[in-house]
From TrEMBL:
GO terms for molecular function: L-amino acid transmembrane transporter activity. The gene is Dsec\GM25240. Residues 13-331 form the Amino acid transporter transmembrane domain. It comes from Drosophila sechellia. This is GM25240. GO terms for cellular component: vacuolar membrane. InterPro entries: AA_transpt_TM.
Length: 379
């Protein structure tokens, strides 16, 4: 970030150091929001399964219990030791999705009964927030790339990241098309919400997905601790009792995530808020500004007709629009749901499909070995 801004216009040179701290802060906050969503999701799914069989309890109790269970795996400090957890998580989540496909293919109506071209315009900001949250995970991507022996394999043309995202997109498109074809306008925030909760098959599917997300939690939190320890608290590597202090930091982080989840247990707006507030910056605005600065020197000149500059300005505008509108709509939805009573029925599975991006990226990255490819590109 500092290097790229130093190559750019004078204004960017003045804010280059501050820009690094801003990116670190947004990245850490983004992963913090992901952990909050994961905590709520697992707790809400567990509550849904227990309510059907034994009785109703407050969602916040489940959030606290899940947080306590997350403390031991959150103490894992090496990324390579998280690989088995994420391999198992990928198996569980796709097994759960496969079980849910049974409900999508049974009783399909004629496709002509569905309005397949138009939706509600006022829901676009919510969609963009959730979509950005789902298909991208900058924090995990950077952490994985930093730990790889050959980082060039990760970002090359049809490299590890491309393969993982392709699998994720295929999953989303399949569930989106089949879900709407099956349930039409009655489709809930997630397809899994349309599936019966009192059948063994659906309970097993939801249990698999919740377990997968539980196993992915340490990966999302890894980025938070890495930024705090290596970029700020122990930047020079001379912090006394660093291991003990890091362990305490990890426990405090889980506790803070738990408290936040208890305060805001509404997954839909929460997921959209995280996506709009942070992912729009990390995936659109910041990369575009970096490329504007890198191509600023005369020897690059932004290409023919300044197409690189035009593209990056377009990305910045779109990112800011998603940031502002998505944040406003998400906060409004949160306020509306806080004043509307029960907020625990819709949402647990809203994050299930979204979680696949993190797990697929890590699992594929640390187990595959693709051929060499160019290491940097921006699209």
């Amino acid at each position: 970030m500092v290097y790229s801004f130093d190559q750019g216009p004078r204004f960017f040179k003045y804010i280059s150091k501050a820009g690094t701290y801003i990116v670190d802060g947004v990245l850490a906050f983004s992963q913090f929001g992901v952990c909050v969503v994961y905590n709520v999701f697992v707790a809400a799914t567990l509550k849904q399964l227990i309510d059907v069989n034994w009785g109703v309890a407050d969602l916040r109790i489940y959030i606290a219990v899940i947080a306590l269970c997350l403390i031991p795996p959150f103490q894992i400090r090496k990324l390579k030791y998280l690989v088995p957890f994420n391999i198992l998580a990928s198996i569980l989540i796709y097994t759960g999705f496969s079980l849910m496909m049974y409900y999508l293919f049974v009783g399909l109506p004629p496709i002509t009964e569905r309005n397949i071209f138009f939706g509600r315009i006022d829901k676009l900001p919510l969609f963009f927030g959730i979509a950005l949250f789902s298909i991208t995970s900058v924090g995990v991507m950077l952490a994985v790339e930093a730990e790889m022996a050959k980082p060039r394999h990760y970002l090359g043309w049809f490299g590890i990241l491309d393969r993982a995202i392709l699998l994720v997109i295929i999953s989303y498109v399949t569930f989106g098309l089949m879900g709407y074809w099956r349930y039409g306008d009655d489709t809930a925030g997630s397809i899994a919400l349309n599936i019966p909760t009192d059948e063994v098959l659906s309970q097993v599917a939801k249990g698999f997905i919740a377990s997968a997300i539980f196993l992915t939690y340490p990966l999302a939190g890894f980025v938070i601790i890495d930024i705090i320890m290596n970029h700020f608290w122990n930047k020079n590597g001379d912090l006394p009792n660093a291991a003990l202090k890091e362990s305490i930091l990890r426990v405090c982080t889980v506790a803070l995530i738990c408290i936040t989840a208890i305060i805001a247990p509404n997954l839909g707006p929460l997921l959209s808020l995280v996506g709009a507030l942070t992912i729009s910056l990390l995936n659109l605005v910041f990369p575009a500004l970096i490329e504007i600065c890198l191509y600023y020197p005369p020897e690059y000149n932004y290409g023919k007709l300044k197409w690189v500059l035009v593209k990056d300005i377009f990305y910045v505008i779109i990112g800011i629009l998603i940031l502002v509108q998505g944040t406003v709509f998400s906060i409004k939805d949160m306020i509306s749901e806080w004043g509307g009573g029960d907020t625990t029925t819709e949402g647990p599975e809203t994050t299930a499909e979204a979680t696949t991006a993190n797990m697929s990226a890590l699992t594929t990255a640390l187990t595959a070995a693709p051929p060499d490819a160019p290491g940097f590109r921006f699209l």
